[in-house]
Design brief:
Strand content: 15-25%
CATH architecture: Sandwich
Bound molecules: fe (ii) ion
Structural class: alpha+beta
CATH topology: Jelly Rolls
Shape: globular
Low-confidence stretches: 202-216
Number of strands: 9
Number of helices: 9
Oligomer: single chain
CATH class: Mainly Beta
Mean pLDDT: 84
Largest sheet: 5 strands, antiparallel
Radius of gyration: 19 Å
Length: 255
């Protein structure tokens, strides 16, 4: 009852996959020099294209996080059509034609190795999130979404809550596109945490929630490489510029 509408389609823009994979990986590889020199900050710099080598966010610097990904504009056009389809399926908003040309968005890529995870967060500064899986194979860990009603229901019940999904786990494949409301919290597993979750560890060595993913006692979450790097591109659609879209105005002021 009361499902959250998440758009999930497979085999999108498959002809672009080889170029996207190699271009994103080339950028990731180019940033390796900094990881060697500065392991702490370098990991963020390589993992998320919004950061520069000083750890500054591209919103602040005005840098383009999709620099050197020449196949991205084609992908962006395709994703934009899907995003409008998603919005049309949920709303009778009469001006979607206008959005085709004028809906601002902000994109970045991510590259995760087996030790990388991203704890619970949302992108509430934006309106919608579209994530495209450039490379997500069997070996790669999935993403979890948190039920926004979960905490409310749990606090209302007298004992440990049963029978209600507090999280939904999705295992996307290469070429999948997912679009969801920007306020929806999500969590990207690393390999070790996913192995524990998948095997439903009876000792409950860890508790999923809060900031648990920083470390797991007695478990090595760093040295668990994948054969290939897990790659995705996220396009964040901005709130309407005329009303709440301060980021649109802020970024345009930087041009
Ligand atoms: Fe995210």
């Amino acid at each position: 009852m009361f499902d959250i509408p998440i758009y999930h389609k497979s085999n999108i823009a498959m002809d672009l996959i080889p170029d996207l994979q190699s271009e994103v990986f080339a950028e990731y590889d180019r940033r390796k020099f900094y990881l060697d020199a500065n392991p702490e900050m370098g990991k963020h710099y390589r993992k998320l294209s919004v950061y520069n080598e000083h750890g500054q966010h591209s919103i602040v610097t005005g840098n383009d996080p999709m620099i050197n990904i020449s196949s991205f504009p084609k992908l962006q056009k395709i994703i934009h059509e899907h995003t409008i389809t998603y919005l049309n399926s949920l709303s009778d908003f009469p001006f979607t034609e206008m959005l085709k040309d004028n809906w601002k968005s902000y994109a970045w890529w991510t590259c995760f190795d087996g030790g990388d995870s991203y704890s619970w967060h949302n992108h509430s500064q934006f309106f919608l999130i579209a994530t495209y899986y450039v490379e997500n194979e069997d070996e790669h860990s999935p993403i979890a979404f948190r039920n926004p009603m979960g905490n409310l229901l749990e606090s209302w019940l007298p004992g440990k809550m049963t029978g209600i999904d507090t999280e939904v786990i999705v295992k996307p494949k290469t070429g999948d596109l997912m679009i969801w409301p920007a306020w929806l919290e999500h969590f990207v597993y690393n390999k070790t945490l996913w192995d524990l979750e998948r095997n439903n560890d009876p000792d409950s060595k860890y508790h999923r929630g809060g900031n648990f993913n920083k470390s797991v006692a007695g478990v090595d979450t760093i040295n668990t490489p994948y054969d290939t790097i897990r790659k995705s591109i996220t396009i964040n659609y901005m709130k309407p510029a005329e009303l709440f879209g301060y980021m649109v105005k802020y970024l345009e002021g930087k041009k």
